[in-house]
Design goal:
Helices cover 42% and strands 17% of the residues. It is an alpha/beta fold. It binds 6-O-phosphono-alpha-D-glucopyranose (G6P) and beta-D-glucopyranose (2 copies). It catalyses: D-fructose + ATP = D-fructose 6-phosphate + ADP + H(+); D-glucose + ATP = D-glucose 6-phosphate + ADP + H(+); a D-hexose + ATP = a D-hexose 6-phosphate + ADP + H(+).
């Protein structure tokens, strides 16, 4: 295509207006331009004599032909731009683009580089009927379109559209007036269409610089192009349109997406050999967008994929680059514009200004007697009277002198043949410069693309739109010729946009509608996980009730098991103790030396699943093997140290060293253990292993061990909390409240076994289908319901089930179910902690998920993150409601207004998840405002606690013996 263009120019030589050396020479004089003052006196309002006097024709003293041609030469010379100047502009614009991409704030970049939330060019699968409202692309008019996307490649349905002229007072009036006008036009258009009034999806093409924070959220930065409505800058224009449509009340229209006209132009590009990755608009204003590497857009913490960036080059104003090419006419035009000092680059290219530039030059030459015998007309002296259409026609070689004559006559002028020829030269000078400047800017964008794609030769298609491109006879050819000169290593094809981007806006709307539908489905799916205050308070109350019943020995999902631990350590404990810690992620054997402080030596041993789910004998023999191995390594063989056994499963304790296993949890299922005294099982295993002496003194639950371990440092620590593989809590209860244990004074530590809370169905209102799937797939269906909504063994599975559900709805992974995602336990709970960590950019989230072989889009990553957040938040809040119930119980037990209590906490989920602990604390503050609850993370695990319980037991036994 490019080659053919050169053919038409009939030479491989450069267009005459670009013969560098000649023009450079011409412009070596500093600034190169004939001194501005030479023109100022005759350009623009201050140069204008007022009223009649201005319109008078000079009787005598018209310039001699030689002077006038020098005058004309001087004038047109100003619009000549050298290759060096164009390259300077190209380089400077590229510099500003990269500065803005890096997010560098000072010096303020000359262009804005605004991300548009359009992350991919059309797939061609988009389908549906969409309403498109275009505001701002074509100046004083807005357009409404009805676009049908068939989703079938090459099958196009012609959009239906209607244009509405926007009254000047609306363009300069109150913002509400403008949006009400737009809403009225929408209704008027839709009234004429055979469409239902309900559920219409609208794409809003809003062609002004905006900060987008989403596909349907966009804040206007500043008006351009003859618009200056009040009360809109700094506002979300989608909301303003929604409000206006609401006020209009005729149609139920959902504004799904807002896009810049350049994006619509790019997205509307017919699918061809090359994807259109640049959208260029030159209409009343000018701008370009292109697909940038997301990793290079600092404001987006993304590293993969591309994002469409609206460059907003209209505001490009680097004095070093633009200064030399700005003419006095440009300064006058800017000075008299609605936004002086702004959009300087646009004012040299945009269709709203080309006519005005031509008018200023014609007025100047007329005043100098060079044109129209020095007789200006009122129209020639009135701003905005020469339109783009005039310039385009007058330049159109096919229009011919007669047409130019007619146009000038319409402007009240009496042109002579020489005038017609000179007017055409003026039009050509102004528009040629515009096309060259536009090309220099486009070449900067192409260089940027080439650079970010690391390609030697960039092959790219540029979609072009806007009436300057469509109607000006030479604009595009000069543009393409100059781009080839400035970016020779880029092979560019230019694709005129078929309908000004309406289809492109519909494409983006289709994508946005799909994403919005996905978001709705995601919200519907996650809504049951978003617990409100009342629901959490209800859980707290239900737990209190279950606690009371359990303490009274009545049927309750909370067994409230007495632990025979009556006191927290008082610091007088001494001695060496062995401790076992079974039931968490790791099985540990510890040597705990208690002097004035506590020293711990421990070793982690694994419990293979085959052992955890084998026979009880096998399990306890394995435990004793580990103890013996540890003793040998620690040189303790043959010593019979008192041993404390942290056994993190529900046990009905009959004494400190007697615990009947009620049922296994957390994936353990060793046979012949439930209903047995696990201390006996351990002792039998010790016996089976001759020559081993062990004195099992105490069996404690890991919650108790954790409370004791933290209680050693902080005597106010009267609650133990585990949120790890499983979850549970214990606390110091008034003995008088514990049925079945004699004594009315003093305290008893109660192991609540809150993991089983809700096994009586009391949590069914909160339980979701995903919880049910996890429960059914577990080895203990119907059991440990509270645990299965909170703890580490299950959260990953809940997330996996939600992801499967969302994939089946087509919301995630383009609906592709992957084998990996159907694999049980493939989504580890630790992934939640990693994915939700604030320090992890989305890119790292993507990496985790890609390791799972999931085909991700950036939207998928965000959605997976939200699923993880919803699941972990619910878990933390439920846990917080439990702790609030316990703290309130203690406060009421003691009849206190305010209670200060500490909670000893352990467990991988609580410790490693970035937000879990703070969410628990926040929920406790909300539900137990009269309790000042301090959470102490246990450093040494509950093994130390078990040793301390053993030490207390030994001390008490000692004191009773003496
Ligand atoms: C620590 C304690 C164990 C407890 C575990 C729970 O390791 O020492 O007694 O069972 O935490 O957390 P986890 O995440 O390992 O299940
Ligand atoms: C606006 C751009 C728009 C361009 C073309 C400029 O004035 O700032 O957002 O894309 O005109 O319509
Ligand atoms: C057990 C509890 C234990 C908790 C934390 C639960 O599954 O039933 O006894 O405290 O996990 O490890």
């Amino acid at each position: 295509m490019f080659v053919s263009l050169l053919g038409t120019l009939g030479c491989l030589t450069l267009p005459d207006e670009l013969r560098p050396e000649e023009s450079d020479q011409l412009l070596c004089v500093p600034g190169g331009q004939p001194p501005l003052w030479k023109f100022m006196d005759s350009i623009g309002s201050e140069g204008l004599q007022q009223g009649e006097e201005a319109l008078s024709c000079p009787e005598e003293g018209l310039p001699r032909p030689s002077d006038s041609s020098e005058l004309v030469q001087d004038c047109l010379q100003q619009f000549k731009v050298t290759v060096a100047q164009l390259q300077q502009i190209q380089a400077s614009l590229l510099g500003s683009m990269e500065q803005a991409l890096r997010g560098q704030a000072s010096p303020v970049p000359a262009v804005r580089m605004l991300p548009t939330y359009v992350g991919s060019t059309p797939h061609g699968t988009e389908q549906g009927d969409f309403v498109v409202l275009e505001l701002g692309a074509t100046g004083a008019s807005l357009r409404v379109l009805w676009v049908t996307l068939t989703g079938i490649e090459g099958h196009r349905v012609e959009p239906r559209s209607q244009e509405f002229v926007i009254p000047q007072d609306v363009m300069l009036g109150a913002g509400q007036q403008l949006f009400d006008f737009a809403a009225r036009c929408l209704s008027e258009f839709l009234d004429a269409q055979p469409v239902s009034k309900q559920g219409l999806q609208l794409g809003f093409s809003f062609s002004f610089p905006c900060h987008q924070t989403g596909l349907d959220r966009s804040t206007l930065i500043s008006w351009t192009k003859g618009f200056r409505c009040s009360g809109v800058e700094g506002q979300d224009v989608v909301q303003l349109l929604r409000d206006a449509i609401q006020r209009q009340g005729a149609y139920n229209i959902n504004v799904v997406a807002v896009v810049n006209d350049t994006v619509g132009t790019m997205m509307g590009c017919e699918l061809g050999a090359r994807p259109c990755e640049v959208g260029l608009v030159v209409d009343t204003g000018t701008n370009v967008c292109y697909m940038e590497e997301a990793r290079d857009v600092a404001v987006l913490d993304e590293d993969r994929g591309r994002v469409c960036v609206s460059v907003e080059w209209g505001s490009f104003s680097d004095d070093r680059a633009l200064g030399p090419v700005l003419t006095a006419f440009d300064h006058t035009l800017d000075h008299e514009s609605l936004n002086p000092g702004a959009q300087r680059f646009e004012k040299m290219i945009g269709g709203l200004y080309l006519g005005e530039l031509v008018r200023l030059v014609l007025a100047h030459l007329t005043r100098r007697g060079v044109l129209f015998r020095g007789c200006p007309s009122p129209a020639l002296l009135s701003q905005g009277s020469v339109l783009l259409e005039h310039v385009a026609e007058m330049e159109d070689p096919s229009a011919g002198a007669a047409r130019v004559h007619a146009i000038l006559q319409d402007l009240g002028l009496s042109p002579e043949a020489s005038d017609v020829e000179l007017v055409q030269r003026v039009c050509a000078a102004v528009c040629t410069r515009a096309a060259q400047l536009c090309a220099a800017a486009l070449a900067a964008v192409l260089s940027r693309l080439q650079h970010s794609r690391e390609q030697q030769t960039l092959q790219v298609a540029v979609a072009t739109g806007g009436r300057v491109c469509e109607r000006h006879p030479r604009f595009c050819s000069i543009l393409q010729g100059t781009v080839m000169l400035l970016a020779p290593e880029c092979d560019v094809s230019f694709i005129p946009s078929a309908d000004g981007g309406g289809r492109g806006v519909a494409m983006v709307t289709a994508v946005a509608a799909r994403l919005a539908a996905h978001r709705r489905l995601l919200e519907e799916t996650l809504a049951p996980f978003r617990l409100n205050h009342d629901q959490l308070a209800a859980v707290q109350a239900q737990m209190r009730e279950a606690m009371a019943k359990g303490l009274r020995g009545e049927a309750s999902s909370l067994r409230m098991l007495p632990t025979y631990v009556r006191a927290t350590p008082d610091g007088s404990e001494r001695g060496d103790f062995l401790a076992l810690d079974l039931g968490g992620t790791n099985f540990r054997v510890l040597l705990v030396r208690v002097t004035t402080c506590v020293q711990i030596t421990s070793q982690i041993y694994s419990i293979p699943e085959s052992v955890a789910q084998g026979s009880g004998q096998q399990l306890f023999d394995h435990i004793v093997d580990c103890i013996v191995d540890f003793q040998q390594k620690q040189g303790l063989s043959g010593q019979s140290l008192p041993l404390g056994f942290t056994f993190s499963f529900p046990c009905k304790q009959l004494g400190l060293d007697q615990g009947i296993l009620l049922n296994w949890t957390k994936g353990f299922n060793a046979s012949d253990c439930e209903g047995q005294d696990v201390v006996s099982l351990l002792r039998e295993a010790i016996t089976r292993r001759q020559a081993v002496e062990l004195n099992v003194v105490a069996i404690v639950n890991d919650t108790v061990g954790t409370m004791m371990s933290c209680g050693y440092e902080d005597p106010r620590c009267e609650i133990g909390l585990i949120v790890g593989t499983g979850t549970n809590a214990c606390y110091m209860e008034e003995l008088r409240n514990v049925a079945g244990v004699p004594g009315d004074s003093g305290h008893m530590c109660i192991n609540m076994e809150w993991g089983a809370f809700g096994d009586d169905g009391s949590l069914d209102t909160l339980s979701t289908c995903f919880d049910a799937s996890v429960d059914q797939a577990s080895i203990n269906p119907g059991k440990q319901r509270f645990e299965k909504m909170i703890s580490g063994m299950y959260l990953g599975e809940i997330v996996r089930h939600i992801l499967l559900h969302l994939t089946s709805l087509g919301v995630l992974f383009r609906g592709q179910q992957t084998q990996r995602l159907q694999t049980r336990d493939i989504f580890k709970t630790k992934f939640l902690s990693e994915i939700e960590s604030d320090s992890l950019a989305l890119r790292q989230v993507r990496a985790i998920l890609e390791d799972l072989g999931l085909p991700l889009t950036s939207d998928d990553t965000l959605m997976v993150l939200e699923v993880c957040q919803a699941v972990s938040q619910r878990a933390a809040q439920l846990c917080g409601a439990g702790v609030a119930a316990v703290a309130e119980k203690i406060r009421e037990n003691r009849g206190l207004e305010e209670l200060a209590v500490s909670v000893g906490v352990d467990g991988t989920l609580y410790k490693l998840h970035p937000h879990f602990s703070s969410l628990v604390a926040a929920t406790v503050r909300e539900l137990a405002p009269h309790c000042a609850v301090t959470f102490l993370q246990s450093e040494d695990g509950s093994g130390k606690g078990a040793a301390l319980v053993t030490a207390v037991a030994c001390r008490l036994a000692q004191s009773t013996r003496v």
